[in-house]
Design goal:
Layout: H1 2-29, H2 37-49, H3 51-73, H4 76-82, H5 85-96, H6 104-126, H7 138-144
Helix pairs in contact: 1-3, 1-5, 4-6, 5-6
């Protein structure tokens, strides 16, 4: 479980910083002045050369690759709910990297996310151990007779 937590937290740090950088880059390139093909191409060009957008995409790709590894090795019913901790890290990143104001109502939501993730993590500890593949359980012996 320690390996899972270490890998997941590392991935979530990449994800939260990536989201904040994407937001910064999108704010920098702005909104279209009007809807036209040339304006859309201008925005795409600005986005494709914006360092915050490029770093954000890179960090999100690292997160996604790590998520694939986690989903391959652990139950999706464990991993996916735990990724909600990314909202917590993203809130901290937005506050301390971008300087966003986070209200007490939003912090309350963050606390609820942490409680939910803790319940999911606890469910992994409370789960009965799976039987060993080569070991015959008492129920299997009875059914063979």
């Amino acid at each position: 479980m320690a390996k899972l937590v270490f890998i997941l937290l590392g991935a979530l740090v990449f994800e939260s910083i990536g989201v904040v950088w994407l937001s910064e880059g999108l704010k920098q390139i702005g909104e279209p002045a009007h809807i036209s093909a040339s304006e859309v191409l201008r925005l795409i060009g600005n986005g494709a050369t914006n360092r915050y957008i490029l770093l954000g995409v890179l960090f999100e790709a690292i997160f996604f690759g790590t998520l694939l590894y986690l989903l391959k090795n652990w139950d999706v019913s464990l991993i996916w709910p735990l990724t909600s901790l990314g909202f917590v890290l993203t809130t901290f990143s937005a506050k301390y990297i971008r300087g966003e104001q986070v209200t007490s109502l939003r912090w309350s939501g963050v606390v609820l996310i942490v409680v939910g993730a803790a319940l999911v993590g606890y469910s992994e500890k409370a789960r009965p151990a799976a039987p060993e593949p080569n070991k015959i359980t008492p129920q299997a012996q009875v059914s063979k007779e």
